[in-house]
Amino acid sequence: MLRNALEPWHILVVVLVVVVLFGSRKLPDTARALGKSMRILKSEARAMRSDGADAAGTEASGEPAAAPGSPADSRR
């Protein structure tokens, strides 16, 4: 039943409906907003991943991780 659920003509119909609904004037603005949202999402995901790596370093040693070259780093 759902073997060939997405065929090329399905995509064509969806694109045609989007163009008719939004018109050609709003499509560039919509694409720009979508691109900006994707960039923000990627940067936030990258920040969360790096925060998770920092937190893992803190939990493993039992002490907060010190920045390289800081006074806290020299006491080790």
Give the biggest sheet.
Answer: none
Distance between the termini: 65 Å
Summing up helix and strand content along with how strands pair, one would put the structural category as mainly alpha
Structure annotation, total helices: 2
Percent range of helical residues: over 70%
Mean pLDDT: 77
Task: Give the beta-strand count.
Answer: 0
Instruction: Please indicate the percent range of residues in DSSP E strands (runs of 2 or more).
Output: under 5%
Description of the molecule:
The protein is built from two helices and no strands. The protein has helices at residues 8-61, 71-74. It is elongated, with a radius of gyration of 24 Å.
Descriptive terms for the model:
mainly alpha, single chain
Summarize the structure.
The protein has 76 residues and is mainly alpha-helical. It has 2 helices and no strands.
Which SSEs are present, and which pair or pack?
Blueprint: H1 8-61, H2 71-74
